[in-house]
Specification:
By secondary structure, the protein is of the alpha+beta class. Helix content is 25%, strand content 31%. It has two domains: 109 residues; 128 residues, Aminopeptidase, CATH 3.40.630.
């Protein structure tokens, strides 16, 4: 029988066993100033081998949304976790899990779409900095983002206070690409916010911005994490070019 973990910090030693696969979950618990409405359920308060982490609203989907993370192998536990998610099925939900896909489809049939995310890891021994295009890059701050991107969300502006996110501006001073740290923990960080306008793709700009964001943290001993859809070759190529090595594939489901 699962229980809600009142002291969420208690699960951190379990998550630290794999700070690459669990970088998002660790950040949701560690960075309390940034993340709110985080709930943790565990199958056993001593071992915490199987767990469900929920965050609403989702970083990816907007206000009426939910991010969910399940680590479980026991079908009965997955069934119980499904009951929690079923009560929230009216929300746009993104589920990332190590559970067997067949069990997710069996107990959570409302998730009609899925893809596989490949997690890459990088450290000081494998990292390969990329220097091209740096003359037009700028580190984004809560001050300059208001001019460069007036539509930036409050969450994104808050993120800029504590983790490096870089932008690329064209000859007209317009922001045309971004990439930087979305999740930051005491042991690892994850690249996010990677977006390049179509007409500027294929030039190595995303690679440059990701390199700039990663370099200072990797030099400080943190593990870099890069996640990409396995059906997105350009994104996979950015990771590999910078020395990020494949670590693990995780299934992602959404409705």
């Amino acid at each position: 029988m699962f229980v809600e973990l009142r002291n969420k910090n208690k699960i951190l030693p379990r998550l630290y066993e794999d700070p690459v696969s669990y970088v998002e979950e660790i950040s949701l618990i560690e960075e309390r100033y940034l993340w709110h409405k985080v709930t943790v359920y565990v199958d056993d308060q001593r071992s915490m081998e199987e767990f469900l982490v929920l965050h609403s609203p989702s970083l990816y989907l907007g206000e009426r949304s939910l991010s969910a993370y399940i680590t479980a192998t026991n079908s009965s536990t997955i069934c119980e976790f499904a009951q929690i998610l079923k009560e929230k099925k009216n929300l746009q939900t993104h589920l990332q899990t190590s559970a067997e896909a067949s069990l997710i489809r069996q107990f959570m049939p409302w998730f009609t779409k899925n893809y596989t995310a490949r997690y890459f890891r990088c450290d000081s021994a494998t990292f390969k900095p990329h220097c091209q295009h740096r003359t037009r890059t700028v580190r984004l701050t809560p001050e300059n983002i208001k001019e460069l991107d007036p539509s930036a969300t409050a969450h994104f502006v808050n993120r800029l206070q504590t983790a490096p996110v870089y932008g690329y501006v064209n000859e007209n001073g317009q922001l045309v690409a971004t990439s930087g740290v979305g999740y930051l923990t005491k042991k690892s960080f994850s690249i996010s916010y990677t977006e390049t306008k179509p007409e500027y793709r294929g030039r190595g700009i995303a690679k440059c911005l990701t390199s700039l964001s990663s370099e200072p943290l990797i030099k400080n001993g943190l593990i870099g994490v890069y996640a990409a859809d396995i059906k997105n070759p350009p994104s996979l190529a950015v990771a590999e070019a910078l020395g990020f090595k494949p670590h693990r594939d995780l299934k992602c489901f959404h409705n």
